[in-house]
Write a structure and sequence with these properties.
The protein is of the alpha+beta class and 223 residues long. The chain folds into 2 domains: 89 residues, hypothetical protein PF0899 fold; 90 residues, Tumour Suppressor Smad4 (Sandwich), CATH 2.60.200. It has 5 helices and 14 strands. It has a 6-stranded antiparallel sheet, with no helix packed on it.
């Protein structure tokens, strides 16, 4: 399934990122247990834009939260349930994620709807149908990220080659994750900065992020 172009300013990948942010925040404040039920609240017009694929979207969001929780060793008492809810008071283009230890009736209905739907492709693949991610170099050239892993460096074996001595032979690696593209320095000599901050470990990228490979600037772009 390829997600169509939506009449909405909300993209699936943004919902996924917000969900995981709420999950992580709940873990950090684990005083009553980690919630397993999540409701994504949005304006009715935004929700209507997903009407044809809502069960598949819910499935993908559920898988994203489940996989993230397993990867981070979060102990949820129950299987993850995700639901969408319309709210006239929510501004178009905005979403709110509510976390709960109690499953609401609407969430149960959403979970049941997901079960009977055909298996969808992963969110990263689904989103690719609606979003194009790319690296823009200083000369203005745009390199679309169309594989699961992309390397940037000076040597010819890299996915994106930059012939500059500031850049190491293999400088950074970008990976497509369920929540979007991430950046990791892979042992470069001159280091890597993301929006002015030195990259340590794997960092999630956002549209317009400035990546400095030593003294060479590249831009991460989502369109």
């Amino acid at each position: 399934m390829a997600l169509r172009a939506y009449d909405s300013t909300i993209r699936p990948i943004e919902i996924g990122r917000r969900l995981l942010g709420v999950v992580d925040a709940q873990v950090a404040d684990d005083t009553r247990g980690i919630p397993h039920a999540y409701t994504v609240v949005m304006h009715p017009t935004d929700r209507a834009a997903f009407s044809d694929v809502e069960p598949d979207l819910i499935r993908e969001l559920t898988e994203v939260v489940t996989q993230h929780s397993e990867r981070e060793s979060y102990r949820l008492a129950e299987p993850v349930i995700v639901a969408l809810r319309s709210d006239e008071n929510t501004k178009r283009g905005n979403i709110t994620v509510l976390a709960s230890l109690v499953v609401e009736e609407t969430q149960i209905e959403s979970a049941e709807a997901v079960v009977v739907q055909p298996i969808a492709v992963s969110m990263a693949t689904s989103v690719a149908g609606a979003i194009t991610s790319a690296i823009v170099l200083e000369d203005g050239s745009r390199h679309v990220l169309d594989t699961e892993r992309v390397t940037i460096g000076r040597q010819s074996g890299c996915t994106i080659v930059i012939r500059d001595t500031n850049v190491s032979r293999e400088h950074v690696a970008l990976r497509r994750r369920p929540t979007g593209w991430t950046l990791r320095d892979i042992g470069s000599t001159n280091g890597t900065k993301l929006n002015g901050v030195r990259v340590e470990g794997e960092q999630l990228l956002a549209n317009g992020d400035v990546i400095m490979l030593g003294a060479i600037k590249v831009i991460f772009e989502i369109s």
